[in-house]
Amino acid sequence: MKTSTCFGPYSGLSRLERTLQSRKDSAPLGSYTARLFNEPKLLEAKIMEEASELCEATGKNEIAAEAADLFYFALTKCVAAGVSMEDIEHNLDLKSAKVIRRKGDAKPQWAEQVGIRDNIDGSTIASTAPATQETFEEASPVPKIEKKQAGPLNGQIRMRRYTITNTNADELKHALQRPSQRSTDQIMNIVNPIIKEIREGGDTAVLKYTHKFERAISLNSPVLHAPFPENLMQLPTETIEAIDISYDNIRQFHAAQKEERPLQVETMPGVICSRFSRPIERVGLYVPGGTAVLPSTALMLGVPAMVAGCKKIVLASPPRSDGTITPEIVYVAHKVGAESIVLAGGAQAVAAMAYGTESISKVDKILGPGNQFVTAAKMTVSNDTTAGVSIDMPAGPSEVLVIADKSANPAFVASDLLSQAEHGIDSQVVLIAVDLTEEQLCGIEDELHTQADALPRRDIVRGAIEHSVTLIVSNIEEAMIYSNQYAPEHLILQVDNAESVVDMVDNAGSIFVGPWTPESVGDYSAGVNHSLRMLSSYLRTPLTTSLTLQSATYGYAKQYSGVNLSSFTKHITSANLTQQGLRNVGGAVMQLAKVEELEAHRRAVSIRLAAMNEA
Q1: 141, 462 in Cβ contact below 8 A?
Q2: Which run of H or E residues covers position 158?
């Protein structure tokens, strides 16, 4: 559709959107354009007129012209209602969820206008699907008909079932494959020009992209420096109390991770080796915007940075269209002692923190989750030796794996699965059912359907459920084999004697133990860190191993830890030798240097030994 990209001029629908937004504000009173924005009936008539002309068009050029006319008036209606191209594209993404089959009939009042009658007389195109086959309707944010929602039309919104004993390795591999993202080349072709422009253009380039993507055209500075104005932190008392409780718990847990004293070992007489930690001096913390306000992410990143003693804490988050940051994030930035908040998102924010600009501080490490563009930008700058910046870990869509046995409460299980499914249509949730009866499985599925249908983000949930699965296993040992192979971001143990099962966990970002520990307490207020998301398939090569599911699941919990206090520190080692210590170890050093043919290394020891002998 030639929607706005991260480089180059506006074109296509994005250019038209920009034009209409300008005309909405500047069209002379009484003009045709002003009437379109101010007279809904006139606009409705034009949309119907152009839709009719498109239906009647035949040739390629005529169809293109009439479609363009329809797009013009449809987008006028969107702009008039404050609906952006981003909103439209989000709904298109929801509609792109896999559709098995849909009946496809038009509404009667429209069908009759073109001569389609009820299928009693055989004039309609009837669905050829067998009566027992499920049919699906594409997702939409608000169901067009109250009782006709997306998901299985003659059944529940539910995950696919796989019984391990009846499923071969290839089927399991496919079932547990994480949702694919855009290709690396597509992402990098967008990200690289942004990074280059930010590096060369500084503040001006950052503002350009903030104006473009966030529509915060009133901004004249890309950064908000501390101390932050009180009026930007106005919040309800209950929100302040919730943030304060979460702040205290996160601080306590991460403070307990501090090393009490440096490690010191005398490896042989006179040879003392030490290791001690120091805070990373300057850290950049990326807090996503978009479909949700995320003060929890600011807390999970900012509090450990503060506890570690980082001297300069820089937050970055996309501003709202009026140029302000949500007050919850500003309040958290204030509490953790942040130096500034970069008013930008995406690759442009990452690049600004990596290289610095006239007003944005350069940082030494960038941490925090984000979309594909943020992840690609983090990986790009971390591989640029001139940037001198590291990153926490590659991040991807959210996921959860719940292990449930006969002791589990079906409502609890369903709520835990849905709490991750609502993050996005690219999220994945997995249930491992341990020796459950058909009745017990149906109980969980009924709860999932009922709870999902009541959620405000139910259509996002439906998209996630499309690629989510239930594995049916015989015992807890079998369940843990598949859990460890999948290596989930979040692992929830709703099983009898759950604490004992923790010893069987080899790979997971974070574990939630027992029926009274929903994953959401970890997301917000318990104290553990929720910055765990593992790298999705779009930026990595699968590891090859004999484990059945490894090459399919891409579970980076096998290699990475979630954010913790050590994410904000570095370790330094030291060696301190006495004369006797050098005598003791010197011979071994000189011999190995000789083997490696590094004569200067050998002489650095021999000269000292000679000096000792001469004294």
Answers
A1: no
A2: none
C-alpha distance from residue 593 to each of 273, 363, 601, 607 (Å): 20, 38, 6, 14
Tokens of 172: 């399991």
Q: What is the pLDDT of residue 438?
A: 92
Q: Which residues does the annotation mark as catalytic?
A: 489-490
How many Cβ atoms from other residues are within 10 Å of residue 283's Cβ? Answer: 30
Sketch out the chain's domains with CATH numbers. 12-83 (1.10.287.1080), 184-391 (3.40.50.1980), 399-533 (3.40.50.1980), 578-614 (no CATH)
User: Distance between CA atoms of 190 and 236, rounded to whole angstroms?
Assistant: 40
pLDDT at 110: 59
pLDDT for the residue 147? 36
Pairing of strands 510-513, 490-494: parallel
Residue at token pair 């007489």: 269
Structure tokens at 19: 């034009």
pLDDT < 70: residue spans in the chain: 1-11, 29-30, 90, 93-156, 179-183, 290-292, 393-398, 522-562
Helix (H, G, I), strand (E, B) or coil at 467: coil
Q: Which residues contact 421 (CB under 8 A, 6 or more apart)?
A: 427, 429, 452, 460, 461, 464, 465, 468
| Closest of 353, 356, 344, 8 to residue 189, by C-alpha | 8
Measured distance CA(139)–CA(150) in Å, rounded = 5
- Residue-level pLDDT at 557: 53
Q: How far apart are CA 533 and CA 556, in angstroms?
A: 9
Distance CA 251, CA 336 (A): 10
CA distances from 296 to 138, 230, 522 (A): 32, 20, 10
Closest alpha carbon to 550 in 182, 178, 203, 257: 178
Specify burial of residue 478 (Cβ count, 10 A radius: 0-12, 13-18, 19+): middle
- Quick one: pLDDT at residue 120? 36
Q: What is the pLDDT of residue 104?
A: 54
Res 53: pLDDT: 85
For residues 90 and 482, give the distance between their C-alpha atoms in angstroms, rounded to a whole number. 33
